[in-house]
Amino acid sequence: MSLWRNTERRALPTSLDPYQITARPYFNNWSSEIVTEMTAFASSALLGATNLLADSIASMPLELTTERAGRIERLPTPSVLMKPNSHQTMFEFIHQTMLALAIHGNAYIYAPQTTGGLPSEMRNIHPRDIKGQEYSDDGSIQYTLRNKTVLTSKDLRAIHWLLLPNQMVGISPLEAMRNTIGMSIAMDRFLSQFYGEGGTPSSVLETDTTITSEQAQLLRDTWADSHTRQRKPAVLTGGLKWRSITTSAADMQMLEHREAIVRDISRVYRIPLHLINGTGGDSQTYQNIESAGVNFVRYTLLPFMRRLEDAISEMLPLTQRVRFNADEFQRADLMTRVKAQQLQIMSGTMSPNEARQQENREPYDGGDQFVAPSSTPVVGSDATPPEK
């Protein structure tokens, strides 16, 4: 039985949720909207937040390292970490893994081991294709797929976002935010119908006298012909009054509530509002936006990076680990970098060539030697200080 064989799919009535469970005692959805992984992307805030996380992690170089004498050294990147399988790049593979984590709270990687200690390939398995999990007698976990294939934890790695004790499946943000996402979909649907159907006129001509339908049509057409794309003074006779139709207070509150939903989604994923164009009343300057970028890596991306690093490292030999290089995300401006490098060079903690390497510049002869302040000799040299 092939692991990737297409299985039968049955259409579900809209009264059922996508997982064929009719009762949801915990995560209610009072909006009456169908919330699935596809309809959820109708929420621009959710689409922007999850795509930002996936793009950010997938954009980082994945490096293979080992520890020797207490120092971390880089190793040549094996082919499986550059092209995990026959039809995906590493960017696409990490991107899909992050999307599964951000939407379903669980990600599953199929990675059969070879005799050399490296996986022969790595593939993503959709969380909905995992239909059963149980512990076997030897302590490993057995996963039953939709097509009845059984895999063990030796070949299948599970990554969880929120996992409670004694649980085997993590909490899904899509399930936990059903009500929030449903409200966002309902508001978008209401506004689309409101403006698409166009049932509310831009203004009203009122009069206390009774007029025929022909007179009403004549007044409307005359007004439109005289004032469309023009700002000439209007002359009203016979008790005629003009009244503009403006957005009601309830509609304005709904727009504010839509922004509150954006803040809720941003809060769940711990993403700064300015990164998904949210409005929260906080003013951003160059300095605090730069510091917010560092905090985005530290408090938002780093936990996801550690989860993926640990999962992929378990597929490698014991002495090897992978790490995401987030230097480009935390890279300061040129002047700040130059000052920091200058201080490290003058204090003897960095060589000039190491500083040039950080700036992607070629080394020069003699640049590998560490220097110190002029009153002391060059570190590691045979030179002796001048006699006093």
Written overview of the protein:
By secondary structure, this protein is an alpha+beta fold. It has helices spanning 44-59, 90-104, 173-176, 178-197, 213-227, 249-269, 286-313, 334-346, 352-358; strands at residues 62-68, 71-75, 106-110, 123-125, 130-135, 141-145, 150-152, 156-160, 203-206, 241-244, 320-324. A three-stranded antiparallel β-sheet has the order 2-1-11. The chain contains nine helices and eleven strands. Strand 6 (141-145) and strand 7 (150-152) form a beta hairpin. Helices cover 36% and strands 13% of the residues. Helix 1 packs across helix 2 and helix 4 (178-197) packs antiparallel against helix 6 (249-269). The model is unreliable at 7-25 (pLDDT under 50). The radius of gyration is 31 Å and the shape is flat.
